[in-house]
Structure formats: C-alpha cells, structure tokens
Amino acid sequence: MAVDPSPSLRFFPYDAPYENQAAAIERIHDALGDERDVLFEGACGTGKTLSALVPALEFARENDKTVVITTNVHQQMRQFVADARAINDHEPLKATVFKGKAAMCHIDVDYEECQVLRDSTKDLVDAEEDLAELESREDDLLTASQAGDGDAAEARSAVMDELESVESEVDDLRGESICEHYYNNLTADTDAFYAWLASDVRTPEEIYEYAEQESLCGYELLKEGMEAMDLVVCNYHHLLDPTIREQFFRWLGRDPEDVIAVFDEAHNVESAAREHATRTLTETTLDSALAELDDAGDPRADQAKNVVEAFRRALVTTYDEQLEFGERERIGEDWEDLAIANPEGRDDLTLAFLDVYTGQGIDADVETGLALGAALDREYDRAYRNGETQVRKECQTLQTMRFVESWLADGSSDGRHPVVSVREGPEGVYGRAESFASIPRDVTEPLFSSLHASVLMSATLRPFGVLEDVLGLDDPGTMAYGLTFPEANRRTFAVDTPALFASERDDPAVQESVASTVGDAIRFTPGNSLLFFPSYAEAERYHDRVAPDTAATTYLDEPGESVESLRERFAADGNGALFTSLWGTLTEGVSFDGDDAHTVLVVGVPYPHLDDRLEAVEDAYDAAFDDGWQYAVEIPTIRKTRQALGRVLRSPEEIGVRALLDARYTQRGHEEMGKYSVRETFPTEERAELLDVAPEKLKYAMLNFYTDHDAYDGDPPTP
After folding, report:
1. Cβ contacts of residue 575 below 8 Å, gap of 6+?
2. Kindly report the CA angle at 229 between 226 and 230, in degrees rounded to 5?
3. Is 690 in contact with 645 (CB distance < 8 Å)?
4. Closest CA to 318 of 434, 202, 490, 460
5. Which residues, 6+ apart, have CB-to-CB distance to 715 below 8 Å?
6. C-alpha distances in angstroms, 603 versus 511, 526, 582, 636, 644?
7. Which residues are registered as beta bridge partners of 281?
8. Residue 601 DSSP SS3
9. CA distance 123 to 168
10. Rounded CA gap, 211 and 233, in Å?
11. Which of 144, 263, 300, 495 is in Cβ range 3.0-4.6 Å of 456 for a Cys bridge?
12. Residue 46 in contact with residue 54, Cβ under 8 Å?
C-alpha cells in the first residue's frame, strides 16, 4: 500500500508537537502503512494520546478506515473526549463515545429482554407499515371500482381479505411487549438527532439526556449512527469480548481489517483479556437448572438432569472435602478459592463428576441437554415477545450445559486452570466452578491478527518482549520515550531500608526503620505525600504507627471508600499523607496534578499474594516462555510500581521526590541479594536516575532538594 512517508499534522490541534511527539507520529504512521502493531511507552508529558490519534486518524482518512480508541480507566474516557473535541475544533471530525446498553437504557431491562423488545417492536412497525400500504391500496381500488372498473372491484376484495389479516396481526403485536422509545426511533423523524450527533463529540450521558427528552432510544440511535464515525471511544470489553466485538464491528459497518485500534493503559490488556476468557458456573445456577428441568415436561429432561445433578453433587462434594472442621464458619461474602488442580491428572471436581455420573454417556447427555436448553430458550423468547411474561427468562439449563461442555474440553488445555470457590450466601456456604484462563493470548492473538493494526500505549509497557509474548503480537514496532520534564525538578531515591520480605514484616526492628523513614519523608515534604504499600493491611499498619507522630493530616485508603472523594479531600489538604495499597485504584487513572502531591513513596516490593491462580499463571508462563516468575509476578509488580511513581510530576513546572523504600531497589541490593534484587527490572534510563540513600539520610536529601527549589512555605523543618 502506497503511503505518504511524511504524514501531515492536519489532526494535530495545537501549534506544534513536542519533538518526541513528532517522531512518534511519523513512526506510528509508517507502522500503520505496513499493517504493523506498535508498542508505545511514553512517560507523562510525552503526549501519548495525540501521538497515536493524529497518525491513526490521518491514515484512516487516507485509506477509508475507522479508528477505535479503548481504555478500562474511566478518567481516561474524559480525557479522550477533551482531545477529540480539540481535534474537531481544528479539523472536522465525526467522533463519539460508546458505552453498553446498561449505561444508556431508559427502561432498565437486561440485554436479552432488550433484544426481544427490539424485535417485537420492529415487527409491529413493519406490520403497521404493511397495514398503511394496504389501506392506501384499498382506497385507490375503491375509487377505481366506483368509477366502473370491474377489475378494481375484484382486486379490492382480495386486498380487503389481506387487510383483515394484517389488522389482526397488528392487534396481536400491539398486545405484545414493545419498547416505546425504540418505537419512536422507527416512526419519528430522527434527522435532527443525527445532525446534533455530528455537530460535536458526544458522550453517552449527553446522548441519553437528548434521547430522554425526545422519548427516543439513544443506544439504538447511536448504534445506527456509528457507521458515519471517524473515531469511536469505547471500553476494553467492546474489543476483548469476542461476541461483543463481532456486534461492535457490525455497528461500525466495518470488517476487522478496516479498524485501527488504539489501546490506552495497555499494560492492563493482559489481565482484562484473562477476565474475558474466564468462565464460571455457580451452585445457584445449577439449582435453577434442575428446577427448570423438573418443570420442562420434556422427555429429554432426564438426560440433561443426569449431567446437572452429577455436576452439582461433585461441586458440593469437592468443596466439602476441602473445608476442614470449623472452616465453614469463617467463610465470608467474598469468593474464596479452594485448590483442586492435580499436577498428575484431572482436577478433583472433574474426577468427582466422573465418579458420581450414572447416565449412559456424558457426551450424549450434554448434547441432548444443549438441544433442550436451546428449545427452552426459544420458548422463553416467544413468551416474553407475546407479553405472557413480564421479564425475558434466561435459560439456566443452556448456561449450565455450555459450561459443562467447555469444562470437559478445558481439561486438556494448558492455558486453563480449574478452580472451585466458596462464599457465604443467605442459606449458608455455596460454591462456584471456574475455568480460569492462565494465558490471555487465546483472546488477544486472534484480535490483533484480524485488525488492520493496533497501537498499544502506556507509561509502563517495557520490557516489550514480555508483552509481545503474553498477548501473541507478531513482530510489533516498539518505541519508548522517558520523562521530558526538567530532570532538575525531580529526585528519585532508592532508600536502603530493610528488605520488606513477607517473613520480615512483623519484625519490630524492620517496622521501626520503615516507620521512621516514612515519617521523615512526610515531615520534609512541603505539601502532600502519597504512600504506597504492598497491601491495605500494610498501609493500615504504618498509618497507625506514623499518624500519632506527624503534624500532617493522615488519610487511610480503605476498600470500599470512594476514590474520587478521598482524592479530593487529600488534594485540598496542603499538608496531608495518604496511605494506600499499590494494588488499589489510586496507582493509575487518578491524577495528582500541581500541588495535589509532591512526594510519592513506594514501600517494599509489593508482590501480589501468591495464590493458586497466580501460581497457575506462573506455571503456564513457565511452560510457554521458560520464565514464569518474571512474566507473571516480577514484571507486573514493577509496572505497578512505576505507575505509582508516575502519580506526581505531571507537568514541566512541577517539582517532586519519588522514593523506593526497600534494599532490593538499591545498587547494594543488586550486588548482594542476587535474584531477590529488582533494580535491573527497571528500564535503563530509570535506573540511571535512582540515587541510593541510607534511611537516616533521606530527610537531608529531601531537605536539600526542596530548599533548592524554595518549596517550603516559611522556614524549612529541622532535621
């Protein structure tokens, strides 16, 4: 494909790009011409979004493509809207934000119910149009027959018979469940809506409000209008879920090869894809399926019950055997995993299922159950369509049979890990079977190979080879740009506090050293401090130790608290210290700009809890890439750490200190601690900025830095 080697900047909305932006724009444009994916790491201030959007929109305009930009971070959605509106002010652009039906529905029904309502409403409108056409023909024929046309009189008689039939059909359809909003879509003049949609970059909230005022269905109108879009902003699941993706591309009016996808915060694609590939089946669904089969009145129900009853008994037996005496009483409302995998053979649940199954053949019974489930599902659809039920029932038998079929097939898959989980319900402990997807490339590789090209961007993608492997990318182009802000405005310290190994965290001497250093960092920060710990429990531990001894207002981030409310209170404080977990929601997608925070600390190497799932991922990556620990644990942890460090220094004028508190970050740790050191996992230029400092010297280093920048309001604190 012939491509202009020097792309224009017609979609760049400002005077001129930064030097790195200009280079990135050209390289991405070239990669799109070669139908090549791009891994693009850029620190805050490198203008990643425009660096990707400008060449993507330019190439799409030249080659009749559509650009889709996607993220799983809500705040980024707002930023994309702002960028798209800036572009639109500079160069006319048709763009919109797309969310799922649940965010835009005016009558609050689920997807299945919506599907039925949409179909029955469309049938009614079609029948009314047929009726109007027949009535017009009947009037014309009546006029002709009154004028003496004998053929017209005979034809009118036939039309009258057809008219009576269609009138009856319309009466029946009007008695069915329909959606008045969608009915208005089909019968009203919607030109004004589409003119309004094209006049600016519209958000789902704006579309909902417009449609509500006009009694229209904004979701369906937007679906119909997406074919005209140059740019669509959406959530990850519109691309990562295979079923949703197929529909999404159909709404775009595009084949996958005509779509350029830009993934923001792309370090999250791995975990998001894993979630989309994971399948679950709860004990309550099994109970509902059995009740459904008892009421089915179908001879095939007995064969289906052979499977459902056996799988339910096996599930209960499996978790009963795992729960020792007294353990049931401690099970809470959150799902708790039980280990059932066997390294030498099939998992405990499958073995129990095969043991209790008493039918003539599992495969035949599953096939029969699938056929019966499909028949029941059609019947539920018909009943809801005809107004016989208030909601569109979901077929539990069909869900169960599909899961069991896939569960048996997954037993031979290296990328699948079987899990049984339990939780406390209204009637006691109940269980869930889960086929956990250890390797996400089963989802991502088919996606990336089908698109024209993709740009995956983030501040923390490196090492690129790891991401390339786990997502199944084929020889992508890579580029990385570090912080372009003045280096004199920042210091990054590796503080030689004791290594915060899990086995050492309860050591009083370790706690004293860490708490003292954290307290010093808070005291010598002219403003707010952000403090990230390996877990919420560790954040609470050090909050409780440090809070009584500091003049700063301390904030403790706790699970379930509103992140935005906490951020606003902390940012407005001016002398606050916020204690949180690195694995919480404040490490990314939440900005601390200007004076919101000046110092950020990461305390310890915050490895995630090594549970059965993570061990399964590590084992799968070890088998696939021969380096499971690096791929599954260390590199994702350091990416999280780097994300946390990026919460401060959001513009060239800001100053700040970033500190890593743990000997494993230091050069001494690298030389003396071998495989336990993590210093070498950071990119080269970031390692070069790490200044090793003893714990007791951190306060002096911070004092000197902030004094040099005249950052203290009044006299600086005394060491």
Report:
1. 527, 528, 551, 552, 553
2. 150
3. no
4. 434
5. none
6. 11, 20, 9, 16, 11
7. 433
8. strand
9. 13
10. 20
11. 263
12. no
Let me know: does 46 contact 20? Beta carbons within 8 Å. yes
Spatial contact of 262 and 68, defined as CB atoms under 8 Å apart: yes
Q: Which residues, in sequence order, are bridge partners of residue 458?
A: 41
Q: What is the CA radius of gyration of the chain?
A: 31
DSSP 497: P
Can you say how many angstroms the Cα of residue 185 is from the centroid of all Cα atoms in its chain? Answer: 31
Residue type, 68: V
pLDDT surpasses 70 at 121: yes
- For 251-285, write each residue's pLDDT tens digit: 999 999 999 999 999 999 999 999 988 999 999 99
- Label the pairing between strands 279-282 and 428-437: antiparallel
Q: What are phi and psi of 434, to 5 degrees?
A: -140, 130
Cβ-based neighbour number of residue 274 at 10 Å: 23
Alpha carbons 470 and 456: distance in angstroms, whole number: 13
Name the helix (H) or strand (E) containing 564.
helix 563-571
Decide if 337 contacts 613 (C-beta within 8 A): yes
Q: Which residue has the tokens 């429990």?
A: 537
Q: Which candidate, 380, 376, 384, 436, places its Cα nearest to that of 401? A: 376
pLDDT score, position 396 = 95
C-alpha atoms less than 13 angstroms from C-alpha of 562 in its C-beta half-sphere: 6
Orientation angle between helical segments 301-322 and 362-385, nearest 10 degrees: 110
503 Cβ partners below 8 Å, 6+ apart? none
How far is it, in rounded angstroms, from Cα 309 to Cα 71? 41
Distance from C-alpha of 381 to C-alpha of 371, rounded to nearest angstrom: 16
Angle between helices 396-410 and 283-296 (to 10 degrees): 130
Which residues on neighbouring strands pair with residue 417, listed in sequence order?
436
Amino acid 669 reads G
> Which H or E run contains 87?
helix 74-90
Burial class, 431, CB count within 10 angstroms (exposed 0-12 / middle 13-18 / buried 19+): buried
Contact 481, 51 (CB under 8 A): no
Q: Mapping DSSP to helix (H, G, I), strand (E, B) and coil, where does residue 567 land?
A: helix
pLDDT at 670 over 90: yes
Q: 3-class SS at 476?
A: coil
pLDDT digits (tens, 9 = 90+) for 16-33: 888 889 999 999 999 999
Q: Check residue 628 and give its pLDDT.
A: 93
The fraction of the chain above a pLDDT of 70, given in percent, is 98
Q: Are 131 and 167 in contact (CB under 8 A)?
A: yes
Residue-by-residue DSSP string for 633-645: IIHHHHHHHHHHH
The DSSP result for 117-163, as a single string, is HHHHHHHHHHHHHHHHHHHHHHHHHHHHHHTT-HHHHHHHHHHHHHH
Cβ contact 352:318 at 8 Å = yes
Task: Please state the three-class secondary structure of 280-336 as a single string.
Answer: EEEHHHHHHHHHHHHHHCCCCHHHHHHHHHHHHHHHHHHHHHHCCCCCHHHCCCCCE
Q: Where is 523: in which H helix or E strand? A: helix 508-523
What whole-number distance in Å separates Cα of residue 532 and Cα of residue 586?
9
Does the pLDDT value for residue 6 go beyond 80?
no
Q: Where do the H-state alpha helices sit in 147-268?
A: 150-174, 180-187, 191-198, 204-214, 218-225, 237-240, 242-252
Length of the chain: 719
What one-character DSSP code corresponds to residue 499? P
User: Cβ distance 289 to 397 under 8 Å?
Assistant: yes
Q: Find where tokens 């805050």 sit.
A: 44
Each residue of 133-168: b (16+ CB within 10 Å) or e? Answer: ebeeebeebeebbeeeeeebeebbeebeeebeebee
Report if pTM > 0.85.
Answer: yes
